[in-house]
Amino acid sequence: MLSLLATHQKQNRTQIINKHCMKIAIGTKNKVKVMAVEETLRDYPHLAESESDAHAVDSGVGGQPLSMEETVRGAINRAKNAFNECTDCDYSFGIESGLIEVPYTKSGYMDVCMVAIYDGSNTHLGM
User: What is the pLDDT of residues 85-125, one digit of tens each?
Assistant: First the structure.
């Protein structure tokens, strides 16, 4: 997913090259999720110097999503809402955890985590 950002960055090189560093909005104040995004950004040279800012935004889904569709929708909503709250960000991340039905498991469910990256026009998803 982050390699897609690199491709997108090359396509918008003139826009991004004039900035001191990229600004990333994160659609949560959850410290573990914020730290996960920041650590991941540091792993990519073209994103390592970016500034991140956490935003408490609504996911638009229940407190515990109970399907893949609801979990994906929550991640997308968080990414878009964080982007809209940030006045000058280049990208935003939305992270949503949820339960999906999985046969042969003791509870019948497994936890999944979806990530959405939004650039103001396009959304990219990952698990």
Answer: 998 999 999 999 999 999 999 999 999 999 999 999 999 99
The CA-atom distances, in angstroms, between 66 and each of 27, 71, 102 are 20, 7, 11
24 in Cβ contact with 95 (< 8 Å): no
Coil, strand or helix at 122: coil
Q: Which string of DSSP letters, residue by residue, matches 37-103?
A: HHHHHHTSTTTTT-EEEE-----SS-SS--SHHHHHHHHHHHHHHHHHH-SS-SEEEEEEEEEEE-T
Sequence ranges of the domains in the chain:
2-126
1-20 per-position pLDDT tens digit: 666 566 655 555 445 444 45
CATH of domain 2-126: 3.90.950.10
Angle at 86 between CA 83 and CA 3, to 5 degrees: 50
